[in-house]
Design goal:
Main location (chains A, B): membrane
Membrane topology (chains A, B): Multi-pass membrane protein
Radius of gyration of chain A: 14 Å
Transmembrane segments (chains A, B): 6-23, 35-55, 61-82
Number of strands of chain A: 0
Number of helices of chain A: 4
Strand content of chain A: under 5%
Shape of chain A: elongated
Oligomer: homodimer
Largest interface: A-B, 31 and 32 residues
Mean pLDDT of chain A: 91
Number of domains of chain A: 1
InterPro entries (chains A, B): PQ-loop_rpt, SemiSWEET
GO molecular function, one term (chains A, B): sugar transmembrane transporter activity
Order of helices and strands of chain A: HHHH
């Protein structure tokens, strides 16, 4: 299989699997189960993956990790907003 | 920065961020919040990433995604065991 296509399919699958949690948190307006500390660790790791993707010049890695960074920034914002209550 | 070192650090950070959820599920013996459907999608995506890593011959991608596959298989088993109750 073409490696870029493989990477894109892999990226879509791992990205899709994150959506339900975001929807759940946004819907229930509850971020009790999320740890902002872990989200920060995750965002750091994912950002390094994006950097790695740029160095290696691999679009699937850049795109899927950049998407994951966005999703986790949304989760982090939810954590901050909903935990204050 | 050396790209392999960068990938390894990125992999460690994204792997570490998964540990608390597994510990929480194992400790509380509760997998209510987990969707086995999404875990299956995630395992498929991560497995494709491992495959991608083999094609590209990139050890950081293989190792971090293989670890994530293992973690999610544990979560899937927890889902099956704890949801039956």
């Amino acid at each position: 299989m073409d490696e870029n296509l493989l990477g894109i399919i892999a990226g879509i699958l791992t990205s899709v699997s994150m959506i339900p949690q975001v929807i759940k948190v946004l819907k229930e307006k509850n971020a009790e189960d999320l740890s902002w500390m872990m989200i920060l660790v995750l965002i750091s790791g994912l950002s390094l993956w994006v950097w790695y993707g740029f160095i290696k010049d691999e679009l699937p890695i850049i795109l899927s990790n950049a998407f994951a960074v966005l999703v986790n920034i949304v989760l982090l914002i939810c954590c901050i907003i909903y935990k204050k209550r």
